[in-house]
Amino acid sequence: MNDISHITKKFGDLSLWQDGPAFWVSKPGQGLPLLKKLPQFTVRAIGHSAGKREIIAIESGEREELDATMDNLHSAIASKLVPPDPTDIYPGTFYGTKRRRKPVIAIQGGIHGSELTGTVAGFNLLQVIATGQDLRGKPWPRLAELARATRIVFLPWLNPDGVARFPLECTSGVPSELEQLLTHGVLADGTPFKYPENKRYFPIPPEKVAFMGCYFNDAGVNLQYDFTSVRRQPETEAWMSYYLRERPDGILICHCNFGTMIDLPEYYVPVGYQQIVSRLGGAVRSRLLREGYEIGRTSWGLMPGLGKPFLSQIGATYHVCGGAAFLCEFPAGVKEFFFTPDQMLDIGLLTLEEVFSFAHRDGFRPYELWDKVKKMLG
Ligand SMILES: [Zn+2]
Question: Would you state the pLDDT for residue 376?
């Protein structure tokens, strides 16, 4: 499962890509020592992977307790028949009867173990909260102000098995064929598994591969679709329990491709939530264009699968915890769609600034006016 000889035969020694710049904190080897220097954040073990690796969440900002009395969103919504009001979708039994003052935002990284640009942005965000500057020393005053007024829960590596298998630190400049082989894996005879056809297998049988792609946990499961399994993986149980504990208003789910950024809304979430995702996508795209980054365009034509009625971890997150979940495909910076690590970090932090700005300005509940709620809270 860890045999990369088919890959090194083709691409040679991978050491060229095994060191990133000091600010590129993508894996536990750099992230855990950094956390020791940032004692103001709470580090919580929230579960473990199929390969028995710990899953952690890093928490910033005071937790405001909710007086929710149950954990099933849909039972709570269905608990009232009259008056018929399709916008009455925030039952107090599930969301609590009192509103929190701070938005709660989850940042979820590394469900696919080779897609770590969002995780790097998350660690730099912690440094911005602590010092006002990222790990390069660049100041982010607005981001610092917004983030300090937010409860943030950051899961850097939801799939620690895949992260542990990933032999590179930074994908900037890496040939995309190499990045794809490491992400999707190689069969015992050297045949590469390819996206998206490899989704025909669930799980990927560990005994059939020479190298299990970093997409998958040690049981060969793509956690993106585990939600509907009869017996779920421990990683899925971990995020479900933790998101129910926190009930975040918004969940930024970090993946990587060539930088299509905020993805299309999913089919099986309420229309209002679909619209939130589109509006946030527009805000992020406009900001990146203003800052000189010509990325962040995605369309139904480009990703035809997304118009189909299927459910992934993004939509599932709403159904479990009732928050607005959005996928962001940050750039991996591969050779064919190149970005420097510096540019990728800027894109990551600009995106986070827009997400927090949206949370404070508009809120992530599409069926209410957040401004009015804020006035009521005083
Ligand atoms: Zn992904």
Answer: 82
Residue 181 DSSP class = H
Domain that holds residue 197: 5-64+100-261+312-377
- Residue 370 CA to ligand 1 center (angstroms) comes to 31
Which CATH number goes with the domain that contains 42?
3.40.630.10
Q: How far is the CA of 98 from the centre of ligand 1 (A)?
A: 36
Distance from Cα 109 to the centre of ligand 1, integer Å: 10
110-133 confidence digits (pLDDT tens): 999 999 999 999 999 999 999 999
Residue 135 lies in a domain: yes
pLDDT at 204 over 80: yes
How many A from CA of 78 to the centre of ligand 1? 33
Contact 333, 339 (CB under 8 A): yes
For the chain, percent of residues with pLDDT exceeding 70: 97
113, part of any domain: yes
- Over residues 128-152, the pLDDT tens digits come to 999 999 999 999 999 999 999 999 9
Say what the pLDDT of residue 19 is: 83
Residue 294 lies in a domain: no
The pLDDT value given to residue 243: 98
Q: Which of 287, 58, 286 is nearest to 155 (CA)?
A: 58
Residue 84 pLDDT level (bands cut at 50, 70, 90): low
Ligand 1 center–CA 166 separation, angstroms: 14
Residue 212 near residue 206, CB atoms below 8 Å: yes
The pLDDT tens digits for 34-45 are 999 999 999 999
CA of 335 to the centre of ligand 1 (A): 18
Residue in 50, 332, 1, 18 with CA at minimum distance from that of residue 186:
1
CA of 85 to the centre of ligand 1 (A): 37
**Rounded distance from Cα 110 to ligand 1 centre (Å):** 8
- Residue 140 neighbours by CB under 8 Å, 6+ apart: 128, 132, 133, 134, 349, 353
| Ligand 1 centroid to residue 327 C-alpha, Å | 9
In the chain, DSSP finds a helix count (H) and a strand count (E) of 13, 8
Number of folded domains in the chain? 1
What's the 325 CA to ligand 1 centre distance in angstroms?
A: 15
Residue 85 lies in a domain: no
